[in-house]
Amino acid sequence: MHRQAGETYTDFVYPAKGFLVPDLPVWFEVGSFVVLGLILLTDLLLVVRRPHEPSMKEAGLWVAFYVALAMVFAGAMFAFTGAEFGSQFVAGWVTEYSLSIDNLFVFIIIMARFSVPRKYQQEVLMVGIIIALILRGIFIMLGAIVIEQFSWVFYIFGAFLLWTAWKQAQDEGEEEEDRENPLIARIRKVIPMSEKFDGGKLRTTVNGKKVFTPMVIVFITIGLTDLLFAVDSIPAIFGLTQSPFIVFTANLFALMGLRQLYFLLGGLMNRLIYLKHALSFILAFIGIKLVLHAMHVNELPFINGGHHIEWAPEIPTYVSLAVIVGTIIIAVVASLLSSKAQLATIDPRLEEDARKSHSDVE
Hints:
Structural class: mainly alpha
Largest sheet: 2 strands, antiparallel
Strand order of the largest sheet: 1-2
Number of helices: 14
Distance between the termini: 64 Å
Helix content: 55-70%
Radius of gyration: 22 Å
Shape: globular
Order of helices and strands: EEHHHHHHHEEHHHHHHH
């Protein structure tokens, strides 16, 4: 596309199954991925070269840096694409970040269950983040292709999110987390494995024989968990924006700083008692938004004769952003003020993990 003098990047958007996608300059998209890639690489090298348990101050500074970086990027999106696509990025990032915080509790349980040494937990988390980025990248590409070709897939995404929201609201997650995955149980029986960790190594020598360490099981468990998280989160953000660039960058920013956030929140996760319900409401809201969008661009012959359902409203991005941010704020404030949250007990495994950490320091 060629721009005339005085035209902005937002003047050029193309319709695809009833939605708009920003036409960003190539240098901005490529530059964004290069800069963010270098930051992630630097973060990874720091973990590999200096494995340690970060202090609250260090973790807090890193989290603040990544949140500020996301805000700067959001400002750039507003400047280059206007309010609509800038709002889509913010809504997508807040949603994915909230889901990532909820997922942190599962990571905490995995670390405690396998008794991963605290100084090597950063390395495990970084590997988990890289696996998550790869899986989400694949899902985003597949999702973008499917959405471009078949508008009816929004019905499936919407129904899936409504079902996920209902499951999320049932509060049955803890029992599932305590159950070992059948695949992990089978791997334990098949491959030779040492009883203890050998630093951050995947292989070690026991009685002259090369065997795997429990770190292999931890990585596989984290990878499987990442896969489940990707299945939940990708349909959710496609309900807010259909731009693959916005979807991927929102996921990237949501995952950046997650490692430090893990150490910053720690046992406080149990205090956010209403976060699960807030996320359930958000997923249900996005599910309804997706179904309404599918009706608006309907092409299925057995629904309304294959014609668009004109009366189905399209929920504006600014409404979605207000609902998502408002819900998170209400849930966090309500959790902090709740007497139930103050009486909430920390998982015994987390207390044991913290005790070991203090013993190592001493």
